[in-house]
Amino acid sequence: MLVEKLVADGQPVRIFDLPFMDFDGLEDRDGIDIVKGDITDAAQVADALKGVNSVVHLAALLPPNSERDRDRTFGVNVGGTENIIKAMEAGAQDATLIFTSSISTYGNTMDEKPPVRVDHPQSAIDIYADSKIVGERMVRESSLNWIAMRIAGIMVPAFMEPPSPWPFVAEQRVEMVHRDDVVDALFASVGAPEAANKVLNIAGGPTWQMHGEDYARDFYGFMGAPFEDVDYRESPGWVDWYDTEESQCLLQYQNRSYQHYSDEMHAIVEALMAE
What does the pLDDT look like over 18-44, one tens digit per residue? Predict the structure, then answer.
């Protein structure tokens, strides 16, 4: 989705991703250059970054896979980020690095007064968050122009199995963000000099600020599943409500309310039932 928005805006895009990924619809198109490789290979990363103006760094091992092998997760999430930084410092010093971090880096803030601001201390409660804290620190300490986006849990409008467990307890404050709003934020960050060298919370905004039970109950309602089957974490997770005033002012990405997402989910389920 991000590639399509950039190409439609007249910006040439180079995609760097693993060889076995699905590039269907992106190959053999004007304005799109696909380079297949591995972020943990420094030489391949350096070749892929030649001549770029911006780098949108989305590569990472995510939970639950990130929690199975700390060394592998740090090899990808931290080592890969280090490869990008070194390659840019050597050959693309004027480019901006847009680093996708995570609100998980704040840790458990359930007993604090919301909203969580970007100056809040970071405290990992899992391997993924720990890797993002280290990677983000490397980005901020580099000689590059950078933007660090601490992105909230992303809600995808699609029919899918509920998570087990949900990444929160029932009474916990939760603010998710629509997938397409994240795409809009990333798109807006490319060529946004006013956002340079800033850490930004990326979350859905006021209409998405609810509690864990609200999200779970609605999701089970969309899917027509019994709410009694919901499986929460045994202890508070790393979700909360966030201060997104600056990120929204700079990037204008909060374009889809929670009601918009709810309407999408109802329409998707209705369409499936009609088949």
Answer: 999 999 999 999 999 999 999 999 999
Q: What is the distance between the alpha carbons of residues 156 and 153, in angstroms, rounded to a whole number?
A: 10
Q: pTM score, two decimals?
A: 0.96
pLDDT tens-place string over residues 183-238: 999 999 998 999 999 999 999 999 999 999 999 999 988 887 778 778 999 999 99
Contact by Cβ (8 Å): 67, 112 = no
Cα–Cα distance list, 237 to 67, 104, 148, 166, 167 (Å): 14, 8, 22, 9, 6
- The Cα 24–Cα 223 span in angstroms is 29
Encoded amino acid at 15, one letter: I
Measure the CA–CA gap between 78 and 76, rounded to whole angstroms.
6
Residue 209 main-chain phi, psi, to 5 deg:
-85, 100
Residues 6+ apart with CB under 8 A from 68: none
CA proximity to 130, closest of 73, 57, 65, 177: 73
DSSP string across 206-255: GGGEEEHHHHHHHHHHHHT--GGG--B-SS--S---B--HHHHHHH----
∠206-208-210 over CA atoms, to 5°?
100
Show the domains of the chain with their CATH numbers.
38-274 (3.40.50.720)
* The length of the chain, given as a count of residues: 275
Longest pairwise C-alpha distance within the chain: 56
- Decide: 122 and 105 in contact? Cβ < 8 Å: yes
- Burial (Cβ within 10 Å: 0-12, 13-18, ≥19) of residue 246: middle
